[in-house]
């Protein structure tokens, strides 16, 4: 996505490289809690737009743009050559958004002109911005202008009053309003009088407020310059996050760039809740908590910072399904799919309060719980969340298995629900060869693997905790599921697993990436592994930029589709981890290499949510093709590199027994990796690994390190 993006907690901005928020681009805006609070932010000098010289949003919380003028005549009739005035335009976000403008005159004569800023807020719900839902709009009040403050107000149909406070550090020379369609545009103008080499500094603060009285807003000191204050606070918060997270350093520059980018992006994609700082899925469309996305990102980032996973577990446990509600696809014990906070959700015009249409979030929740307790050794967390985990298991056995055959199936009940409820949740992701949609209920291959891992891993954890009865029951159920899985999902003539079973229990025999997730879950019979992995790694699946979601030989293959031939980094990361766990180290490193090389071609070295699945060709297609509406940054794309590192290093942490197992297998393109501040239980571990397999332990506390 070719935009600048900065984000903090529940506030983020998407703008052009010029720093502009344009009304003709539907994704542009300043957003807060699922609502667009600023839909127009347009700057002009002498009535003209400015030209961009440079831009960056590297830090995720700050953006800097340098612009210059076009040729014009100033108020005295003097001709001002193009490129002789500059505007340094900087943004910083920390709850509020601050914009700082520094104008400078590089002419050898005085320049008098006017700088104008056009501002508007449509207060649209994110689902309206995306064009997938709508409802009767509330009332946009006339802007309130007083001194150096402008207040834009919206009275929502949900009874919530939303306001955007705009504070000017230097009072504009003039402020006026005009109507533009359904919104009110505020124009603030400053008379500019610049001596040769002279500068002018203008700051403004945009503070979104939801049903809060004026007296509690943070910037009661109206007009104060706070850009540097906001920037310092955000830098301090980010430094604290980095200090508490693991540091990975390698001798590969591209990999280091991806690690640094992904670490900052993960921080930018978190939001504070009473249960802790939980992960949001992606910007701009999905900057809210998700079940599946937040869980998988938590799994990926366990080596980076286990606190993310703990907060995510607590958040999802708090909103675990309590009743049978078809409108929200809710059932007792079920883990939510997606939560929304805007006007449409508040009015229950969409079922996302939260919405539960996900068949895989519940077993993934149990899997994450088992991994987190094992990694951290947190017995108190085990006791705290075990009741939620037991309710999740009950959902798996009672509500998730629609026909009692031992497999998890899905079928949407909500009239506004999602048709396909696995991670490939687009309308057309599950197809027959003739292109017709597979009818639900559908039992997806990866979901059965998740259910198996949930029971097996929890069985092993329960045994450690002294609950042998639960351990034995779950181990038996897992064994039965494994036997049935390998019998009913394996397609011998394809040497592969079916994507799922349709409503008649007939295997959906397409060659897709879904079965690759089974590798990390330990459900594949040993005698099938080699043939399965060999088929997975064939060129029709391996694009040169990672494994595709669907074989290019499939009649439904489309490299520009969302799920039918594209390449998803997170999908690849789970397959990489599974390949490593099953001893296919070279294959895991090959896929990791392709994903890493793809990252070099995206802005900021940032892996996108997905990319097109065209075949890499050194003569004609030497770079990956961008998917048109990919989220960026996106959480499980950012988490990908940490799952890759875990696989290369063979990291398996056991905080319950104060043990860290390492089984490194570095690819040819890495000579060494140094890992510091890695948390295992309550200790921090520091070690270095070389490609010859040598491990240097630098510090380990009371953790026993076993090298295998």
Note the main sheet. 9 strands, antiparallel
- The total of helices stands at 15
Mean pLDDT: 94
Shape: globular
Short structural summary:
This protein is of the alpha+beta class and 708 residues long.
What features would you describe in this structure?
The chain has 708 residues and is of the alpha+beta class. Helices cover 28% and strands 26% of the residues. It is built from 15 helices and 34 strands. The strands form nine sheets. Strands 6, 7, 10, 11, 13, 14, 15, 16 and 19 form a nine-stranded antiparallel beta sheet that branches.
SSE topology sketch:
Layout: E1 4-8, E2 11-15, E3 29-32, E4 35-38, E5 40-45, E6 51-56, E7 62-68, E8 72-73, E9 79-80, E10 85-94, E11 96-105, E12 111-120, H1 126-130, E13 139-140, E14 144-146, E15 149-155, E16 161-168, E17 174-180, E18 183-194, E19 199-210, H2 227-243, E20 247-250, H3 253-268, E21 270-273, E22 276-282, E23 286-289, H4 292-300, H5 306-318, H6 343-346, H7 361-376, H8 379-399, E24 443-444, H9 445-464, H10 468-488, E25 490-491, E26 496-497, E27 500-501, E28 507-508, H11 526-536, H12 569-581, H13 585-599, H14 635-638, H15 640-649, E29 652-654, E30 659-662, E31 672-680, E32 683-690, E33 695-699, E34 704-707
Parallel strand pairs: 30-34
Antiparallel strand pairs: 1-2, 2-3, 3-4, 5-12, 6-7, 7-10, 8-9, 10-11, 11-19, 12-18, 13-15, 14-15, 15-16, 16-19, 17-18, 20-31, 21-22, 22-23, 24-27, 25-26, 27-28, 29-30, 31-32, 32-33
């Amino acid at each position: 996505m070719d935009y600048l993006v900065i984000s903090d907690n529940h506030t983020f901005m998407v703008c052009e490289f010029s720093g502009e928020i344009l009304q003709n681009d539907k994704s542009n805006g300043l957003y807060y809690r699922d609502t667009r609070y600023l839909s127009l932010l347009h700057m002009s000098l002498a009535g003209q737009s400015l030209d961009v010289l440079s831009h960056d949003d590297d830090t995720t919380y700050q953006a800097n743009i340098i612009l210059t003028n076009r040729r014009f005549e100033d108020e005295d009739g003097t001709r001002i050559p193009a490129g002789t005035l500059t505007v340094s335009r900087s943004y910083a976000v920390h709850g509020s958004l601050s914009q700082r403008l520094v104008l400078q005159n590089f002419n050898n004569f005085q320049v008098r002109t006017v700088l104008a800023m056009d501002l508007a807020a449509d207060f649209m719900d994110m689902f309206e911005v995306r064009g997938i839902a709508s409802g009767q709009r509330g009332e946009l009040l006339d802007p309130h202008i007083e001194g150096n403050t402008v207040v834009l107000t919206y009275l929502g149909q949900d009874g919530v009053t939303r306001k955007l406070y705009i504070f000017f550090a230097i009072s504009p020379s003039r402020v006026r309003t005009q109507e533009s369609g359904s919104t009110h545009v505020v124009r603030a103008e400053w008379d500019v009088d610049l001596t040769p080499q002279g500068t002018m500094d203008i700051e403004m603060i945009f503070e979104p407020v939801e049903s809060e009285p004026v007296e509690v807003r943070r910037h009661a000191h109206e007009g104060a310059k706070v850009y540097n204050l906001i920037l310092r606070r955000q830098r301090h918060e980010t430094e604290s996050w980095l200090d508490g997270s693991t540091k990975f350093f390698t001798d590969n520059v591209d990999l280091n760039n991806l690690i640094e980018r992904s670490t900052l992006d993960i921080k930018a994609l978190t939001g504070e809740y009473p249960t802790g700082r939980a992960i949001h899925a992606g910007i701009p469309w999905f900057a809210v908590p998700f079940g599946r996305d937040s869980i998988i990102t938590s799994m990926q980032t366990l080596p980076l910072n286990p606190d993310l996973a703990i907060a995510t577990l607590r958040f999802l446990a708090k909103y675990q399904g309590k009743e049978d509600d078809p409108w929200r696809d809710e059932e007792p014990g079920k883990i939510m799919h997606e939560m929304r906070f805007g006007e449409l959700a508040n009015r229950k015009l969409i079922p996302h309060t939260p919405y539960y249409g996900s068949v895989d979030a519940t077993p993934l929740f149990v899997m994450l719980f088992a991994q987190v307790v094992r990694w951290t050794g947190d017995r108190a967390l085990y006791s705290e969340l075990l009741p939620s985990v037991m309710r999740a298991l009950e959902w798996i056995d009672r509500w998730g298995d629609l026909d009692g055959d031992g497999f998890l199936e899905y079928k949407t009940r909500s009239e506004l629900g999602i048709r396909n409820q696995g991670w490939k949740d687009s309308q057309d992701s599950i197809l027959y060869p003739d292109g017709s949609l597979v009818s639900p209920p559908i039992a997806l291959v990866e979901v059965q693997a998740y259910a198996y891992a949930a029971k097996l891993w929890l069985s092993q954890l329960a045994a450690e905790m002294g609950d042998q009865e639960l351990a034995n029951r779950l181990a038996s159920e897992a064994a039965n599921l494994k036997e049935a899985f390998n019998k009913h999902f394996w397609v011998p003539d394809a040497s592969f697993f079916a994507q799922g079973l349709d409503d008649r229990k007939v295997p959906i025999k397409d060659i897709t990436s879904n079965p690759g997730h089974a590798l990390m879950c330990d459900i594949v019979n040993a005698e099938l592994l080699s043939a399965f992995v060999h088929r997975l790694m064939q060129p029709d699946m391996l694009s040169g930029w990672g494994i595709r979601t669907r074989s290019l030989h499939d009649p439904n293959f489309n490299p520009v589709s969302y799920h039918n031939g594209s390449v998803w980094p997170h999908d690849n990361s789970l397959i990489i981890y599974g390949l490593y766990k099953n001893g296919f180290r070279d294959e895991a490193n090959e896929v990791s290499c392709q994903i890493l090389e793809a990252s070099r071609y995206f802005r900021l070295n940032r892996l996108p949510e997905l990319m097109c699945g065209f075949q890499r060709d050194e003569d004609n297609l030497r770079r990956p093709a961008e998917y048109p509406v990919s989220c960026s940054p996106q959480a499980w794309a950012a988490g990908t590199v940490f799952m890759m590192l875990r696989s290369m290093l063979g990291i398996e942490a056991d905080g319950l027994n104060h043990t860290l197992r390492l089984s490194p297998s570095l690819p040819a393109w890495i000579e060494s990796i140094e890992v510091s501040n890695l948390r295992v239980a309550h200790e921090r571990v520091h070690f270095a690994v070389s490609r010859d397999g040598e491990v240097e332990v630098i510090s380990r506390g009371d953790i026993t390190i076993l090298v295998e």
